[in-house]
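Field reference: "sequence" (input) and "structure" (output). Example, Outer membrane lipoprotein-sorting protein:
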Amino acid sequence: MRNKLLLILLAVIVIVVSGLAIYQFKFKHSIEDDLNKLRSMKSYSTDVSYTFKNYRTEFKEEGKQYYNEKYGMKLNVGDKEQIYKEDKIFIRYPKDNKSYEVSPDYDNFYRYTFVNELNKFLVPGENTKYKYDTHEGKKCIVVEFENLNGNENMSKEILFVDASKLVPLEINIFNKKGDDKVTVYFKNFSTSGTVQKEIFD
């Protein structure tokens, strides 16, 4: 009788432990898991808006970002297109039929608003902090990091990621003095399908 009770108790323990393990595997995940999924995006497109702030006024730019890990990045903003391929940036003005090529040093701002460019900062480290929090009524992953691109107006960035959809919502950019200089908003962020090569030609 005692042996049967021990066997039953052992079976119950095994079932409970197995159930907890299955739950942990299927339903529970860490913030690191979520950030790894964000880093693993192969391509995406999104509408984007930039609000620039100074002491007297604000001005906005509207645009669209494209990214494909094979073909590069592209930003359409105003009447200008910027295409980032390897170590070159191609600037185009389609309406004026003008284009030229510049070095990567030309842009130390827009490229750091592409999510794939932020991947290097989405890892734990001395200059990176992250947590789950609520932002404008949504559960978000909040990532705060120092942007070490040499631009004093981008000394710190705070990235808000929708925790359920794992898409970026907003970036707040601060200068070396801690002043809020730029807010970047993402809308209609999509990773479904593939951003085609023709977009970058």
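The longest strand covers residues 43-53.
The chain is about 15% helix and 45% strand.
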